[in-house]
């Protein structure tokens, strides 16, 4: 029977029994079938009531590798118990036992940890599986990649767990940073956002608003009620005596005016690979990242070029190059951006013709 099928059977057991099941039944009906399907069968591979802390405490399962040393420890609780109160203790014992992975589960929820990683317990948890609500195939994939006998005993399980942990930490960082980034954009607003709005407006009406007009509108937009697409907001006509005295902006006239040509970059080709971009500055940053990956040991050569420096002080729109301390100025016209890319390639011995930028004029 495939692990996915075992998980589906366990889900049916959970639905039938609910939270009334005790710890012994949890281990027998919910946990042991999954461990068995993962290859943990027989006394040479799995031990119950494994003694830790010089015999003062016993954990429910020890998964044994090629010798007698466990490669993973599992603590089981009844479904009605709160797992959060047991995390620190399980992690502590797993750390001192030197195991690769530890698991805390009530049969319904499975929390998987890398006990030897740094950080809080939450920062060391690489997977949280909710059997009744998660897709059985996705749950099976994670368990097999990290806990299957062959994976754990070969070291691949720990490697896969670290990949999952890195991805989860990045997801959490992005979740925190996205609203912060948005607030910075609308509060600034950022030059990149201004340029994007200018291009969208120009595409729509054939005229490009000024930087100050865009800034003014972006700063006020959060205070306006949402307007349904295609429906203009209703505004009461003010009485003449109540109209505030202020300078009147000259409206932009579009009738009969030729639209200013713009250069839009959609992709570029370099060294046999195609890279799609949304903004032209991404051509420069991507090329710089690719060059840095190849020449990080002597990348200081870029300091001989304009628009590259250590740190971002003095730049209008700085972008960090890979994970280095180098930054590049991206507040450039299309021509300057292309020329900067070509000079960068030539500095490291490449032909500037290696770079082919695809535009929509």
Number of helices: 11
First-last Cα distance? 59 Å
User: What is the strand arrangement across the widest sheet?
Assistant: 1-2-3-4-5-6
Rounded mean pLDDT is 84
Helicity, as a percent range: 40-55%
Tally the beta strands.
12
Radius of gyration: 30 Å
Order of helices and strands: HHEEEHEEHEHHHHHEEHEEEHE
Q: Structural class from helices and strands?
A: alpha+beta
Beta-strand level of the residues, as a percent range? 15-25%
For the largest beta-sheet, the strand count, sense and barrel status come to: 6 strands, mixed
Low-confidence stretches: 225-260
Shape descriptor: elongated
SSE map:
Blueprint: H1 3-17, H2 23-37, E1 46-52, E2 57-64, E3 70-76, H3 87-97, E4 101-105, E5 109-113, H4 121-124, E6 125-130, H5 136-147, H6 149-154, H7 156-187, H8 191-205, H9 211-221, E7 264-270, E8 273-276, H10 281-295, E9 308-310, E10 318-320, E11 326-329, H11 334-347, E12 356-360
Parallel strand pairs: 3-4
Antiparallel strand pairs: 1-2, 2-3, 4-5, 5-6, 7-8, 7-12, 9-11, 10-11
Helix pairs in contact: 1-2, 1-5, 5-7, 10-11
Please characterize this protein's 3D structure.
- The protein is of the alpha+beta class and 361 residues long.
- Helix content is 42%, strand content 18%.
- The chain is built from eleven helices and twelve strands.
- The strands form three sheets. A six-stranded mixed beta sheet has the order 1-2-3-4-5-6, sandwiched between helices. It has a three-stranded antiparallel beta sheet with strand order 8-7-12, with helices on one face. A three-stranded antiparallel beta sheet has the order 9-11-10, with helices on one face.
- Helix 1 (3-17) packs across helix 5 and helix 5 (136-147) packs across helix 7.
- The radius of gyration is 30 Å and the shape is elongated.
- It starts with a helix and ends with a strand.
């Amino acid at each position: 029977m495939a692990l996915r099928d075992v998980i589906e059977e366990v889900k049916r057991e959970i639905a039938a029994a609910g939270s009334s099941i005790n710890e012994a039944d949890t281990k027998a009906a919910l946990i042991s079938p999954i461990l068995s399907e993962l290859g943990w069968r027989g006394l040479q591979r799995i031990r119950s009531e494994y003694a830790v802390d010089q015999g003062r405490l016993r954990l429910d399962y020890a998964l044994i590798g090629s010798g007698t040393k466990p490669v993973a420890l599992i603590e089981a609780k009844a479904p009605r118990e709160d797992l959060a109160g047991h995390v620190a203790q399980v992690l502590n014992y797993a750390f001192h036992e030197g195991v690769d992975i530890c698991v805390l589960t009530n049969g319904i929820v499975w929390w998987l940890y890398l006990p030897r990683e740094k950080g809080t317990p939450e920062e060391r948890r690489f997977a949280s599986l909710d059997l009744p609500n998660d897709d059985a195939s996705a749950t099976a994939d994670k368990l097999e990649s990290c806990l299957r006998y062959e994976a754990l005993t070969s070291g691949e399980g720990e490697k896969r767990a670290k990949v999952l942990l890195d991805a989860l930490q990045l997801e959490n960082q992005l979740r925190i940073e996205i609203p912060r980034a948005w607030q910075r954009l609308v509060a600034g607003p950022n030059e990149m956002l201004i340029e994007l709005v200018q291009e969208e407006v120009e595409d729509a009406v054939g005229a490009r608003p000024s930087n100050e007009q865009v800034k003014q509108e972006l700063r006020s937009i959060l205070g306006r009620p949402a307007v349904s697409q295609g429906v203009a907001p209703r505004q009461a006509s003010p009485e003449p005596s109540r109209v505030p005295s202020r300078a009147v902006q000259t409206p932009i006239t579009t009738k009969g005016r030729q639209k200013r040509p713009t250069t839009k970059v959609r992709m570029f080709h370099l060294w046999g690979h195609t890279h799609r971009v949304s903004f032209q500055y991404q051509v420069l940053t991507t090329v710089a990242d690719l060059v840095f990956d190849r020449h990080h040991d002597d990348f200081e050569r870029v300091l001989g070029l304009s628009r590259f420096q250590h740190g971002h002080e003095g730049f209008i729109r700085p972008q960090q190059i890979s994970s280095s301390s180098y930054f590049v100025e991206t507040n450039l016209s299309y021509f300057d951006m292309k020329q900067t890319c070509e000079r960068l390639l030539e500095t490291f011995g490449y032909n500037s013709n290696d770079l082919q930028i695809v535009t929509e004029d």
